[in-house]
Amino acid sequence: MKYAPFEIEHFFRQHEFSAPHGISSSDCEPLTLPELLRFASPRRREQFEQLWLGYTDNQGHPELRAAIAGLHEGVAADDVIEVVPEEGIFLTMNALLEAGDHVVAIAPSFQSLWEIARAKGCELSFWHQRQSGSGWHFDLDELAGLIRPDTKMLIVNFPHNPSGCLPGRAEFERVVELARQHNLILFSDEIYRFSEQGAELRLPSACELYERSVTLGGLSKCFGLPGLRVGWLITPDAALSHELQELKSYVTICASAPSEILALIGLENWRALTARTVEIVQQNIEHCRAFFARYDGLFQVSYPQAGTVTLVELKSDRSVDDFAAAAVAEQGVTVLPASVMLFEGNFFRLGLGRRSLPHALEPLEHVISDHLL
Ligand SMILES: Cc1ncc(COP(=O)(O)O)c(C=O)c1O
Fold first, then answer.
1. In which domain, by residue range, is 302 found?
2. pLDDT tens string for the chain (373 positions)?
3. Of 11, 155, 190, 317, which one's alpha carbon is 20 to 30 angstroms from that of 216?
4. Which residues have a Cβ under 8 Å from the Cβ of 90 and sit 6 or more positions away?
């Protein structure tokens, strides 16, 4: 089994720590350790300071699994498997798919969401994003047309990376209904859940709605804790859960002990952490509205209601690839073009979660005036 290079990871490895500015990150302003510890109850602080650095529970710390379950309706701690978020994708695709299976996957999407299935020899059909006005949507009739009698898994990701698309509740329930009608495994990547700009926009989690679902979540994005490497898989299906846990023993075996306690501190204060992210995103949206409006139609931006990223269309004869190359070479600004996310069109991803975004847009002005005006 040979995996294609993970383009987006390759791109960020090249630039993330060498270019001084970035406007395309998907994570949100990470907290520092002292900032996080300030949220800790005396008990958690003591637990962290006295921590025994042994191996941890294979399925995840029971209290942490209970806290994760508590973010969902009708989910028990035993339904939760703690994983590194990316590991959760790897485990699911490897444990639950075989060569020859037909899989429907949302596109564009985080490459591992479909590349692992491709490398295993699965047959893929893509459910493509469509532009509607300045926003994005996914067509349900199109999805229904992609599902075949032999389809095994449907892979979705809402709020969506990279478009920021968030369907309405009825639409999401229809996606779940299609999965149920065809007895599909529904893999729902919900790593951007809890970044909604208004709790009323939050979709139910797939694991709350459907027995054969596997939900992926984690602390990497709107909780501001990507460095903890803590995420989770939740499935109500005991047989699927067993397969996932068996394979985990061949990958990380168990989680990092300090990360588990820090994750507990984060989850016990999840409302404050996610509110902090939403506030940063909303401030950045206001800043970007003013910034891009100055260029009179050169950029078309769809500002999302959830998630930490969106797509910007460059309305120019100049390609986004050239623009991105000039931005990093001349001003040290990392701009992620559509080609690296493996889809067509003159788009780049705008990351709205970092406090440094306004500051990173300043040097971009020079690139715009030198190359696009
Ligand atoms: C949609 C999606 N799923 C999963 C992941 C994996 O998260 P992590 O990098 O924290 O493992 C990412 C990271 O960017 C993502 O965008």
1. 7-32+271-371
2. 799 999 999 998 888 778 899 999 999 999 999 999 999 999 999 999 999 999 999 999 999 999 999 999 999 999 999 999 999 999 999 999 999 999 999 999 999 999 999 999 999 999 999 998 878 999 999 999 999 999 999 999 999 999 999 999 999 999 999 999 999 999 999 999 999 999 999 999 999 999 999 999 999 999 999 999 999 999 999 999 999 999 999 999 999 999 999 999 999 999 999 999 999 999 999 999 999 999 999 999 999 999 999 999 999 999 999 999 999 999 999 999 999 999 999 999 999 999 999 999 999 999 999 999 9
3. 11
4. 112, 116, 251
Of 221, 241, 269, the residue that ends a domain is 269
Report which protein residue has its CA nearest ligand 1's atom 9: 86
DSSP string computed for 42-101: HHHHHHHHT---S---TT--HHHHHHHHTTSTT--GGGEEEE-HHHHHHHHHHHH--TT-
In a domain, 235, yes or no: yes
> What is d(CA 88, CA 244) in angstroms, rounded to the nearest whole number?
9
Distance 358 CA to ligand 1 centre (A): 24
Q: Give pTM, 2 decimals.
A: 0.97
Task: Check which CATH number belongs to the domain holding 159 and give it.
Answer: 3.40.640.10
Q: Which two tokens stand for residue 230?
A: 């803590």
226 lines ligand 1 (CB under 6 A): yes
Centre of ligand 1 from the C-alpha of residue 213, in Å: 18
Query: CB of 334 closer than 6 A to ligand 1?
Result: no
E-state strands within 135-201: 135-137, 151-157, 185-189
Looking at the structure, do residues 205 and 243 belong to the same domain, yes or no? yes
365 Cα to the center of ligand 1, angstroms: 30
Q: Same domain, yes or no, for 285 and 259?
A: no
In a domain, 310, yes or no: yes
